[in-house]
Design a protein that fits this description.
The chain is α+β, with helices and mostly antiparallel strands. 45% of the residues lie in helices and 19% in strands. The chain has two domains: 225 residues, 2-Layer Sandwich (Ribosomal Protein S5, domain 2); 184 residues, GHMP kinase, C-terminal domain (Alpha-Beta Plaits, 2-Layer Sandwich), CATH 3.30.70.890. The strands form three sheets. A six-stranded mixed beta sheet has the order 6-5-7-4-2-14, sandwiched between helices. Bound molecules: alpha-D-galactopyranose (GLA). It is an enzyme of class 2 (transferase).
């Protein structure tokens, strides 16, 4: 079976689809008013190039925004009622009243959409009132490509503009929107998330990867730097393959990893594993310091904790090395670091599944410079850094191997570093 590539929907098409869903759902009257107080906003999914499970350890990561976006047509109301609809199930309108809403009250997909309004009000943005909103998306759902952040960030931008919060036009303002998007996921939807996805969706710049430093207490300016990531100039493509293995972050595995990292930091008497990573890389003999630290963790918390810590501290360092390698156009080294990252996620952090490992193995055998899972793991997608024109044959080889092994058919897309969310109508 030929493997299918998911194309990104262009802004004008996305705006058209979102506004027609809006008017079909909420009526002609609302469609008219879209032009006054409402509009259409879009925010992207992401792939993380390297730096996985580091964000909640105050570490480093390196995402790019995908050209694939979630579009929301939104129109503010005078009361505090909310109605939301999605093209996934256009017959079902989810409703809530912001005045009587508590953490966990909204269930299913609407928790992400409505949760952002709830979180903004909790943060003191009481200008946020009720609204009607219609979502359409071309970010594949549940693929580890941050479809949830694309949704929360698109509506965060919409609420900021529709209620004149003034947060969408500056990086400092966007950081406030990111906090609300994270709070919606954590507290309304009950899904753990560390901030990587939302930062990517609202802070990436076209043509660049976002070097994100998740250390606490950094100013917005200190926390990001744009890293030119020109694939075409290097005759490269970034292939994304969605393995279509089921992917869930709220089933306890992600939270368990997070908890163990916290316990390890406590046992080592530091605020986060970032501090451990920094003291290793700043020491004179970093290999020896790494080994000594891991021996200590093993004594304090056992073998599993030691392996979790080994992943996090080596991964933080790999982000630094990858940035340097790509900057020097040492693509072989950059690819090798991606491979190391995947192996560490497979062997030490234990968040891969057979579909991810198989896809990565095939991509490497077919000549990728490097291949790794991207996102939280436990299903989802892989990325592979490949020569121009190799993306399709490699995706096909993965699909053929999946068919042989009886896995579900995978889907592919080509990732180019795209821009963050914005108002488009
Ligand atoms: C998910 C989370 C992110 C991050 C990644 C792993 O995507 O939402 O915050 O922790 O997993 O890097």
């Amino acid at each position: 079976m030929p493997v299918s590539f998911i194309e990104a929907v262009k802004n004008d098409d996305g705006a058209r689809q979102a506004t027609s869903l809006f008017s079909e759902t909420f009526g002609e009257y609302c469609r008219m008013r879209l032009q006054d107080n409402g509009g259409v906003w879009a925010s992207p999914g992401r792939v993380n190039i390297i730096g996985e499970h580091t964000d909640y350890n105050e570490g480093l990561c390196l995402p790019i925004a995908l050209p694939h976006r979630t579009f929301v047509a939104l129109h503010p109301r005078r009361d505090t009622k909310v109605r939301v609809v999605s093209s996934v199930n256009p017959m079902s309108i989810e409703q809530a009243d912001l005045d009587h809403l508590h953490a966990g009250d909204v269930k299913g997909w609407a928790a992400y959409a409505i949760g952002v309004a709830w979180a903004l009000r909790k943060a003191g943005y009481l200008k946020v009132r009720g609204f009607d909103a219609a979502f359409v998306s071309c970010v594949p759902l549940g693929s580890g490509l941050s479809s949830s952040a694309a949704m929360t960030c698109s509506i965060a931008l919409a609420l900021s503009d529709a209620f004149d919060l003034g947060l969408s036009d500056s990086d400092v303002g966007r950081v406030q929107l990111i906090h609300a998007a994270i709070m919606a996921e954590n507290e309304m939807a009950g899904a753990s998330t560390g901030g990587l996805d939302q930062n990517a969706s609202l802070r990436c710049v076209e043509g660049n990867a976002l070097l994100l430093d998740c250390k606490k207490d950094l100013t917005p300016l200190q926390s990001v730097s744009q890293q030119p990531f020109d694939l075409a100039a290097n005759n490269l493509e970034l292939l994304v393959v969605d393995t279509c293995a089921p992917h869930q972050l709220n089933d306890g595995q992600y939270a368990a990893r997070r908890m163990m990292c916290q316990e390890a930091a406590q046992a080592l008497n530091v605020s986060s594993l970032r501090a451990v990573a920094d003291s290793i890389s700043n020491s004179e003999d970093s290999q020896q310091t790494l080994q000594d630290t891991l021996n200590r963790v093993q004594k304090l918390g056992g073998e599993t904790m030691m392996r979790r810590v080994r992943h996090v501290v080596t991964e933080i360092n790999r982000v630094r090395e990858f940035v340097e390698a790509f900057h020097k156009t040492d693509i072989t080294l950059a690819g090798e670091l991606m491979n190391q990252s995947h192996n560490s996620l497979r062997d030490d952090y234990e968040v891969t599944v057979p579909e991810l490992d198989t896809a990565v193995d095939v991509a490497r055998n077919e000549g990728a410079y490097g291949a790794r899972m991207t996102g939280g793991g436990f299903g989802g997608s892989i990325i592979a850094l490949v020569d121009t024109n190799r993306a399709k044959p490699i995706a096909q080889a993965i699909a053929d191997e999946f068919a042989k092994r009886g896995f579900a058919a995978p889907r592919a897309l080509s990732a180019v570093p795209s821009s963050s969310g914005e108002r488009i109508l």
